[in-house]
Amino acid sequence: MELLQMFQNRRSVRQYTDAPIPEETLTKILQAGLLSASGKAIRPWEFIVVRDRAMLNAMADCRTTPVKMLQEAACAIVVLGDESKSDVWVEDCSVAMANMHLMADALGVGSCWVQGRLRETSDGRTTEAFVRELLGFPQEMRLQAILTLGMPVKHPEPHALEELPMEKIHQERF
Ligand SMILES: Cc1cc2nc3c(=O)[nH]c(=O)nc-3n(C[C@H](O)[C@H](O)[C@H](O)COP(=O)(O)O)c2cc1C
Questions:
Q1: In 2-88, where does DSSP find H-type helix?
Q2: What is the pLDDT, as a whole number, of residue 1?
Q3: What CATH number does domain 3-152 carry, 3.40.109.10, 3.40.50.12280, 3.40.190.10, 3.40.250.10?
Q4: Which pTM does this prediction carry?
């Protein structure tokens, strides 16, 4: 499949079967994250792979509305950025998230971005503080997002090139 078709095919998948993700597939997804571009090549990210069912269930309360897909996911990759190392850790971690999400789709694994930064739990704590308490990462490590992963119940239709809002593209001036 050519790369543009992979981008068309990439969809957020929020429902998963009970099937496990093969370990070598998960490794490739993580490698895609580690291969990401980053400002000044600082690569300020750290990834926590969570497979433990009880922990995934606990993490589901990280947002005001429980994150059901964390309760179904075979695993999750928690993406953290070290703000003491880079002032563009948000951008760097977003690139890593996007690359892992695309890699997962290309390998037939369903995944979805769960926003962590700037989000809250139902009791008013930040999503970051909540996840930090569960997973024990240090203060300088900031929560960017969580990528849920699982074998898809079904894959949504690919995006059609004809439906792209080409009017968002401006030539030479706005
Ligand atoms: C920055 C960002 C934050 C997102 N946060 C969430 C989220 O918290 N929960 C969720 O279900 N999907 C989240 N998504 C996935 C989007 O809802 C999804 O990409 C969008 O609806 C388009 O659908 P598609 O990915 O299938 O093309 C997020 C995506 C991005 C890029």
A1: 3-9, 23-34, 53-59, 68-72
A2: 74
A3: 3.40.109.10
A4: 0.98
